[in-house]
């Protein structure tokens, strides 16, 4: 570190630029901000200016930092135009205009404009905000589609709500029922397939996930922090993973993959189990794993959608007797149940129906 030598009471260090001098030299008349330092190590390299006799007030043209004298100094420099633009209040070039809505005099807008408060409330600004929100929602939706690409089959990702065979009436009714309820579980069931249960589950997952990440996605598309996890799993695959996760004879690789799948199904913030009882659960090990998933998600109120081709009263025949009553009770307590076979109401296709009903908590 170079040795510093302080010169006198002006606060100027040897070998430093004159702009580093203390303000004490300004009051003693030794500092001129527009005079280049001449390299002399003594004082500031400037000639002290005489003080006026009026209580030490500098004479006309003397560099001073008070508001009245500052414009005179700046106008003598080559940066005068930039400073006038940046600091119009100091140079007296600031113009005030009256807001056309509330009449408040302001300097931040042009003649015939509005103040900030009125502009934020104006229809033009509200339309801009709505357009920005729409673009942000579309951006979050595209990110959600990208995250779901590795989880959901292309057939489901290509779901078209305008397709004539899509159950649009059921989709609109289920969406409205879930938005009006405080529950975070949904159970879609019917006696037959082809009712768009899986497609509706995908659309719900897409909307809920996009809404969940909206606070973490900037307008430019960058994400703040790690996005929440999600999982789309077939019921048959989940029960099989529950069955083999402790079978050491299959090897560590198979056991590890099965264990990871069950753990993800138990803890991810967003889960869809498609066709829960596609195959009868007869083994106790599979029933144990499924009960762990349902119990943990029920206790922590994690977002869950379940689709099935079995009515609730018939599900006990497809579950293992060890946990069948407990699993059915948890589903009935937490889920909004949507029975596509309940009543012959309007659900988009002939002979199809749905009825929303929420179980008690």
From TrEMBL:
Region: Disordered; residue ranges are: 31-59
User: Which top-rank group of organisms is this from?
Assistant: Bacteria
Polar residues: compositionally biased ranges: 35-49
Q: Which InterPro entries match?
A: P-loop_NTPase
Which Gene3D superfamilies would you find in this protein's record? P-loop containing nucleotide triphosphate hydrolases
Q: What is the name of the protein in this document? A: IstB-like ATP-binding protein domain-containing protein
The species this protein was found in: Luteolibacter soli
